[in-house]
Amino acid sequence: MIGIAEVARYAGVSTATVSRALSGNGHVSPATKLKVETAARELGYVVSSTASSLASGRMKNIGVVVPFLNRWFFTSVVEGAQRALLRNGYDLTLYNLTGDGIERQSVFEHFLLRQRVDAVIAVSLELTEDEIFRLHALGKPLVGVGGLIEGVRTLAIDDIAVARLATEHLLGLGHTRIAHIGGSQHYDLDFHLPTNRRFGYEAALTAAGIPLDPELDEDADFTIQGGYHAAKQLLGRPHGRPTAIFAASDEMAIGSILAARDLGLSVPRDVSIVGIDDHELAEFFGLSTIAQFPQGQGEKAVEILLDQLHPGQHDQVELNTPLPVKLIVRSSTARPGE
Amino acid sequence: MIGIAEVARYAGVSTATVSRALSGNGHVSPATKLKVETAARELGYVVSSTASSLASGRMKNIGVVVPFLNRWFFTSVVEGAQRALLRNGYDLTLYNLTGDGIERQSVFEHFLLRQRVDAVIAVSLELTEDEIFRLHALGKPLVGVGGLIEGVRTLAIDDIAVARLATEHLLGLGHTRIAHIGGSQHYDLDFHLPTNRRFGYEAALTAAGIPLDPELDEDADFTIQGGYHAAKQLLGRPHGRPTAIFAASDEMAIGSILAARDLGLSVPRDVSIVGIDDHELAEFFGLSTIAQFPQGQGEKAVEILLDQLHPGQHDQVELNTPLPVKLIVRSSTARPGE
DNA sequence: GTGAAAGCGCTAACAC
DNA sequence: GTGTTAGCGCTTTCAC
User: Fold this and answer.
1) Which residue of A has its CA nearest to B67?
2) How many CA within 13 A on the CB side of residue B45?
3) Where in this chain does the record put each HTH lacI-type domain (chains A, B) (predicted)?
4) A75 shares its domain with A171
5) Are B116 and A49 inside 8 Å of each other by CB?
6) CATH of residue B25
7) Any bridge partners for residue A337, and if so which?
8) Which among B71, B107, B217, B83 is positioned nearest to A92, based on CA atoms?
9) Which of B89, B98, B110 sits opposite A89 (nearest CB)?
């Protein structure tokens, strides 16, 4: 292992100068800087991140905590975060909390607190007060993505507004019997996201003067399978079949499309279906949806954190811009048939 | 930040003893060990991983490099690896090589080599000789998952055998016009996986005395969309429609099922379809497939690496057990219709 | 079984 | 702008 001393000797300068030249902290004349860089390259020198971290207190590493990995939203956020971090010379350490609470406790007790990360991104994860307290106590910036965390800067779309917009899209087309497929209480662990989307749906109906019909509300688990099952129940009933379905996620909306097909119903002629996400399969299924941009959310989370870690070094992140969403109308929604 | 010194003082021992007691390296009397553990807990002490790494040379961190994240196979491997690492007190640093080659170079130049990881898992990634050489030069164990890497211990199913098995399943049911949807040359970047699966398909047909028909071979990109498009071409032709399709991945097989439905063909009555993977949606679509177990592959990769890092400390990993695969027959395959 | 002390390789004052 | 040097907080010989 070739160290900073060799580089210094080779370049004919001190180790301090090598450190400064390579890290960009502190002033070094352009000439020496070049000399050092050349020396480092020729010797194949790479800083020891542990030594560097120990001396500087900076890890150049941020922790990303997700509840699952096998979901489009989460992996997209991680991809976005990864890309932004790579650009800035940071590593991404991934903590996947799938499974029992023991894993979760372990992550907090022994990993995050082990001074391995400069900051933490919590994706769709409700942290306990204690967990937040401990992170704050360590001076670790923390940002949430995908749901509100008490007392923590969070990046999340306005679930109520988005659900309302989706429902209004259906109302605007002339639908009045609009069903909702949303999350069950069980799924409400993180952030009341299902609850908020239901609120948006109900608000839109109420504003349009349409009474809520509990018969038109089915629970599902945010998967294609779950959406399929729920839609079957809604669309299979002999009387009062809805003419439109608002599913709280694209996965469930896709399941609904498949359910409609299996029942011999045509989308959108017999039933219109709208989702939320703009999932990678949404276009393939012609699904009308409200796009959110999870990769962008991951990138933005990183920018916010880096801004906190190095104030003023980055383009000022617009902290208060609401997250973008976009209604994308494809072929799964139309005016109700006669 | 409370350090090892405080714990030592609090427990009335030396820092050396604290280190030994907490890390399990070296002998400490049960009594002192208990004292130290109590002290550490009461003071809320957590080792500084950077200091520990610098002093010991161990990072307790392994790097996982993937070409994408938004694919079921990759996230499954990562999940499995993560779980196994967590159990062993290791962190997982994720490198996603999506995008241009610059990212890739950057990962190798500035990240992996920065002494951040003890070992590397490369998932479905063909490494260059130079990349392998550099990792070996650093003494970093390396294991590949999902494809052979020259000169590197690799975990991969036998693609030829698996493809052959899938094809034989169709042959055994009595099919003779069996189409293949596989990867294009373009996708062949990593490991000739598509090529190997094609070989297996061809071998099965040849062994059964069935001549290969280039008309029955379509390229796709391993996505649902790609499989859909390819299957449409195969199933839409007026003459010589295949009675069965072997798709080289479940995503493409699912796309094929959807294509058949859209053409008004019934699966499996009009066309049988088999895939490879046992994707999370396979059961939902009733897809017959050859299961591989990516989570298990990720776990096993970790076990192999830990075994190399701490020889003899773990249950001996069976290095030479072939990776398990399993034919799962569901409702997408049947005898050909009349 | 336990303690003393010498590093691990770098960064950041502080001097010049 | 550059060099000197004292740590950063542990681990690990080497004594005892």
Assistant:
1) A79
2) 23
3) 2-56
4) no
5) yes
6) 1.10.260.40
7) none
8) B107
9) B110
In this structure, the answer to whether residues B131 and B82 fall within a common structural domain is yes
Which nucleotides of strand D come closer than 7 angstroms to any CB of the protein?
1-5, 7-13
User: Other CB atoms closer than 10 Å to residue A57's CB: what's the count?
Assistant: 12
Instruction: Give phi and psi for A313, each to the nearest 5.
Output: -85, -15
A332 in a domain, yes or no?
A: no
Q: Is the pLDDT of residue A80 over 80?
A: yes
The CATH number covering residue B90 comes to: 3.40.50.2300
A213 in the same domain as A201: yes
**Confidence (pLDDT) at B320:** 61
Q: What is the pLDDT of residues A271-302, one digit of tens each?
A: 999 999 999 999 999 999 999 999 999 999 99
The answer to whether residues A177 and A267 belong to one domain is: yes
Determine the Cα–Cα distance for residues B308 and B319; give it in Å rounded to an integer: 12
Report yes or no: B204 and B168 within 8 Å, Cβ to Cβ.
yes
Q: Is residue B327 part of a domain?
A: no
* Among candidates A70, A79, A93 on the partner chain, residue whose Cβ is nearest the Cβ of B93: A93
Q: Give the residue with minimal CA–C1' separation from C7.
A: B55
pTM for this predicted structure: 0.94
Q: What distance in Å separates residue B204's CA from the closest CA in chain A? A: 33
Distance between CA atoms of A248 and A251, rounded to whole angstroms?
Answer: 9
Residues B92, B127 share a domain: yes
Say which range, A171-180, A232-241, B32-41, B303-312, has the weakest mean pLDDT: B303-312
What is the extent of the structural domain holding B121?
A: 61-156+294-322
Q: Is residue B271 part of a domain?
A: yes
Å from B10 (CA) to D10 (C1')? 17
* Domain match, A108 and A163 both: no
Domain count, chain B: 3
**Quick one: B134 and B222 in the same domain?**
no
For chain B, positions 109-168, list CB contacts with chain A under 8 A.
Answer: 109-111, 113-116
Co-location of A17 and A166 in the same domain:
no
Is the link from the previous residue into A268 a cis peptide, with omega within 30 of 0?
yes
Nearest to B124, CA basis, from B65, B184, B209: B65
Q: How far is Cα B331 from Cα B283, in angstroms, rounded to an integer?
A: 9
CB atoms within 10 A of CB B154: 17
- Interface check for A106 against chain B (CB to CB < 8 A): the answer is yes
The stretch A63-83 carries a mean pLDDT of 93
Q: Which positions in chain B touch A51 (Cβ < 8 Å)?
A: 54
Q: Per-residue confidence of chain B (338 residues) as pLDDT tens digits?
A: 899 999 999 999 999 999 999 999 989 999 999 999 999 999 999 999 999 999 999 999 999 999 889 899 999 999 999 999 998 989 999 998 876 667 777 787 767 777 899 999 999 887 888 888 878 877 889 999 987 777 788 899 999 999 999 999 999 999 999 999 998 766 545 567 889 999 999 999 999 999 999 999 999 999 999 999 999 999 999 999 999 999 999 999 999 999 999 999 999 999 999 999 999 999 999 999 999 999 999 999 999 999 999 876 655 556 667 799 999 999 999 999 86
The answer to whether position B336 is within a domain reads no
Q: Which of residues 56-95 of B touch strand D (CB under 7 A)?
A: 56-58
